[in-house]
Amino acid sequence: MNPQKLQKSFKKTNNGMLKMLPLILGILLLVSMLNILVPKEIYVKIFTGNVIFDAFKGSLLGSILTGNPITGYVLADNFLKNGVSLVAVTAFLTAWVTVGIVQLPAEIYALGKRFALARNIISFLFSILVALVTVLILTIF
Amino acid sequence: MKKNANRNSWLFLIIILIVFLVVFITNPEKGNKILLFYRHLLAQVLPILVLVYFILLATNYFIDNQKIKKIMLETSGFKIWLLTVLAGILSVGPVYMWFPLLKELKDKGLKDRYLAAFFYNRGIKIQWLPVLVLYFGLKYVLVLAFVMTLFSIPQGLLTEYFSKPKSIK
Q1: Whole-complex ipTM
Q2: pLDDT at residue B5 in the model
């Protein structure tokens, strides 16, 4: 083990965790408020049970909202516990980690407008497909 | 960009706290219920965060982003697809940290298809997989990661197709 490299890794990890902390604490409070204040029927009204539309809505939500993976997992787990289908939750999770609306300006700046727009739109559509295929495989096996 | 992301995190927490305080003042009963639920969630998430800390530490120690970049530029053919998938899965840190490196790769001639596939595989986030397993189970995570890896290839090809400027006849 390289002590210098280890020290650098500790510093980087500590910085990363400290930066994530306010977001995690905030999202946990948001999830707590949603659980207590929002009636469970709302989820049923938004996610109607239509596989394609629910996946589309899940993907849309995952694309708009942003944050580190753990916040996405907590939200997805909350959706699932409130009766949202696995397809919609998977579309949400996949869009959460593959579509980046918030960082779009930076992506356009670094890699070009056409690339950034094409990548994000295709990622959005693919999150629906990935969700459908994933749940199909899980159902078969 | 980094500072902005950090500031936005704090801003987000402050906004949520203000909303909570408004709820607590107007309806103390609901406020107390929220606090109880929050404590329950924190108790669930804190041990996971400790696990995440050590996984991030290990990835920061063992994975070198510069090495990934060098290998990607020196490879071609089928191997580059394989490397793109692996590099995407293994890449760590927030995405904005990668933009300068990806821009450099693009400027040096790396095709858009590989860049897009790299981005897509970043979604698998290997360092977070144990956490995802805790929430959704191993079978779900394996299937999702497998499907995402498969879809990263058409994702790359389609992104390249649509991002190419169309010639005017």
Answers
A1: 0.83
A2: 61
Q: Nearest by CB to A33, which of B34, B162, B165? A: B34
Question: Could you tell me if A12 lies within 8 Å of chain B, comparing CB atoms?
Answer: yes
pTM for this entry: 0.78
Position B150 pLDDT exceeds 90:
yes
- Residue B169 resides in a domain: no
Note whether A77 contacts B19, CB cutoff 8 Å. Answer: no
Taking only the tens place, the pLDDT of each residue in A76-108 is 998 898 889 999 999 999 999 999 887 788 888
Q: How many domains does chain B have?
A: 2
Residues 6 or more apart in contact with residue A27 via CB below 8 angstroms: A67, A71, A74, A75
Residue of chain B minimizing CA distance to A119: B159
Nearest CB among A70, A74, A111 relative to B115 is that of A111
If asked whether residues B28 and B68 sit together in one domain, one would say: no
Gap between the Cα atoms of B122 and B98, Å rounded: 11
φ/ψ bin of A47: left (φ > 0), alpha (ψ from -120 to 50), beta (otherwise): beta
